[in-house]
């Protein structure tokens, strides 16, 4: 595909489509367990990459937990060279719909090692700290990821759900490859966006359609158009489990580029 969806952006050393695909919805209720229709989940992943040319797939070990990383490998391995798979570590899942930051160095290291096995890769090209655990020194959390980076098991390190102050503190420990925060037409203001713009850090807004609320109110085009117009460093990752909804998302971004 000669033209990348939404334009192109460099994230973690790869030039990828500005329109990415979030995989949080490819699980059971409460982001727990397997999806109701596993074959459909596999089909949506293949559709995103092979049919629509999306080259940025976002996931996390907490989705399921572990479910989606297995799905990605089953659907897409061996991975196209152009594909960036970003995952996240640092959130424990004690129960459905329950998320708990867990930044102990031993836990983070075990999460990275397990994600490597599930995805079938030798290096996580982009690994986010899913949440900062305020019970553990940030330097210890990032130091663990940096050690894994030095060992060649992580390519680039990102941050999720952070403030500008979090970014400044983290920037003393690691090079921040990307920031992933909530931003959409409902949650319109994130001061981290301005800092990302100032520092030329890719900004990856998750929940860009506000879990479907904005789609019902505005359709798909308006919310994605609003995000894509915020700057070339903005790369939204809408999520869906339905092939027809993915088609609608892709068509809206195609329309926006005309």
What can you see in these coordinates?
- Helices cover 38% and strands 20% of the residues.
- By secondary structure, the protein is of the alpha/beta class.
- The strands form three sheets. A seven-stranded parallel sheet has the order 3-4-5-8-9-10-11, with helices on one face.
- Strand 1 and strand 2 (14-17) form a beta hairpin.
- Helix 1 (38-51) packs across helix 2 and helix 3 runs parallel beside helix 4 (138-150).
- The radius of gyration is 17 Å and the shape is globular.
Uncertain stretches of 5 or more adjacent residues? none
What would you report as the Rg, rounded to the nearest angstrom? 17 Å
Q: What's the N-to-C terminus distance?
A: 16 Å
**What is the chain-wise order of helices and strands?**
EEEHEHEEEHEHEHEHEHHH
Mean pLDDT across the residues is: 96
Numbering strands along the chain, what is their spatial order in the largest sheet? Answer: 3-4-5-8-9-10-11
Q: What class do helices, strands and sheet pairing give?
A: alpha/beta
Number of helices: 9
**Fraction of residues in H or I helices:** 25-40%
- Major sheet size, sense and barrel closure: 7 strands, parallel
What is the molecular shape? globular
The total strand number stands at 11
Strand content: 15-25%
């Amino acid at each position: 595909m000669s033209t990348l969806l939404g334009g192109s952006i460099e994230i973690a050393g790869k030039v990828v489509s500005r329109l990415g695909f979030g995989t949080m919805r490819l699980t059971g209720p409460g982001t727990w367990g397997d999806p109701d229709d596993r074959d459909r989940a596999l089909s949506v992943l293949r559709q995103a990459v092979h049919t629509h040319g999306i080259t940025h797939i976002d996931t996390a070990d907490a989705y399921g937990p572990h479910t989606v990383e297995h799905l990605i490998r089953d659907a897409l391995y061996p991975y196209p060279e152009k594909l960036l798979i970003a995952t996240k570590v640092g959130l424990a899942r004690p129960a459905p719909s329950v998320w708990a930051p867990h930044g102990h160095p031993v836990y983070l290291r075990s999460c990275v090692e397990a994600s490597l096995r599930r995805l079938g890769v030798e290096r996580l090209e982009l690994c986010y700290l899913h949440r900062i655990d305020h019970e553990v020194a940030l330097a210890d959390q990032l130091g663990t990821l940096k050690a894994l980076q030095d060992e060649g098991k992580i390519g680039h390190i990102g941050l999720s759900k952070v403030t500008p102050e979090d970014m400044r503190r983290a920037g003393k420990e690691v090079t921040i490859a990307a920031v992933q925060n909530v931003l959409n037409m409902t949650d319109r203001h994130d001061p981290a966006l301005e800092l990302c713009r100032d520092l030329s850090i890719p900004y990856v807004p998750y929940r860009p359609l506000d879990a479907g609320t904005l789609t019902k109110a505005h359709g798909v085009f308006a919310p994605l158009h609003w995000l894509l117009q915020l700057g070339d460093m903005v790369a939204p990752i809408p999520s869906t489990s339905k092939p027809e909804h993915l088609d609608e998302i892709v068509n809206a971004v195609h329309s926006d580029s005309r």
